[in-house]
Write a structure and sequence with these properties.
single chain, alpha/beta, Rossmann fold, 2 domains, 7-stranded mixed sheet, 4-stranded antiparallel sheet, 6 helices, globular
Amino acid sequence: MTVRLPFEELDSQTTPMGEINLRRRIEPSLQVDVYEVKLGDEFLMSSLFTVAEIELARLGLAEVDGGDLDVVVGGLGLGYTAVAALEDDRVDALVVVEALPAVIGWHERGLLPEAAGLADDARTRLVQGDFFAMAAGEDGFDPHTSGRTFDAILLDVDHSPRHVLHDSHARFYTTAGLRRMRRFLAPGGVFALWSDDPPDDDFLAVLREVFDHVRAEVVSFRNFIIDGESTNTVYVAS
């Protein structure tokens, strides 16, 4: 009989951005396993609240016409956005760009049961790299094919356009930064972004400088910790 420990650290590694930790614990009020990621003293993500990460993929891909879709996910994390993208039968190829090799290793080692099979899916390629540097560079997101364009780019790295994990990310959320990224969208392509903050009118205005159709979708989900509803935002631009 396997005994489930109430808490265990699954991995801890030093990265250029600080110590990153993956841990599993049993949430006593729900009696479920919860997987959490910390970077330094900051909580990055939890498997307790994944509705908006999944909706990032669903809302973004719903805006794309046609089939045989090539998709980029910026930020691997616990894998919920990437898994949701693969649930769309039209997705033919998925490139997931993740800055931290440790995070890619969690998936390759099978440490995250709810993302089981992601790394082994024939459509998926996990690429270690800086999404923001790739968006600003000449080669783009596929190290094997310079300048390759995609039908959708789905991004979930920073907390929001105003609350970034690293100062170097801030320039991406400008008109110039988004225009550089847009070079790697195919005609009719869609850019979608997760944010922990409410819709930001200033950022919407920046998006409208670059894209023809822009909206902010508020995604609500039950938060048992506050015994109420919480919200995230998904920006969709095409």
